[in-house]
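Quick start: read one record
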Amino acid sequence: MTSQISLSGVPAAVLADLKKRYGEPQRAYHTWAHIEQLLALFEEAKPRLHDPIAVLYAILYHDAIYEPTRSDNEEKSAELVSSLNSDILDQSTKAKAAALVLATKHHAVPAGLSSGDAEDAAMFLDMDLSILAAPAAEFDAYERNVRIEYGHVPEPMFKFGRAGILKTFIARDRLFLSKWGHDRFEQAARNNLRRSLEALEKTS
């Protein structure tokens, strides 16, 4: 039963390793608090998921490797979940979880998935982007924490790059790919993104 699929079923050693990783000093937003936010959404979305175990492990591992100076964090995180022992996850579930982790690189549903796996991917990606729809104060704290994580980037370069990312998101037909995510998050996220972009452009 999906109601029995939760964090309590994850081995203690796995959780201890993950919490250590998410507590690394280079992180300000991509911390265990981010995972807890997604786990709360997971509980809400779980009845809609086709493979909730794969989604749960994708949530836990999608930012397990996070170094802002590197461009292969998603690949390394996918490798980490793929390396789990078979007594924790079977090969099929590991493959699904790894594919979901890799999908966070471009926040697009991978091609070639079954309809059920594609729906799970859409919902998982929507969970990951849900911070964009947070109340203004929480969203602004997220933006500040992203800046902290990219403290190695000079301010003019950061503003230029961040503005480009925000414009790319705003230009999308849909930020949120599932009906659940679109109905729940889309409008608030667009309001936050436009407000953030205006603030960046005023100070550039």
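The radius of gyration is 17 Å.
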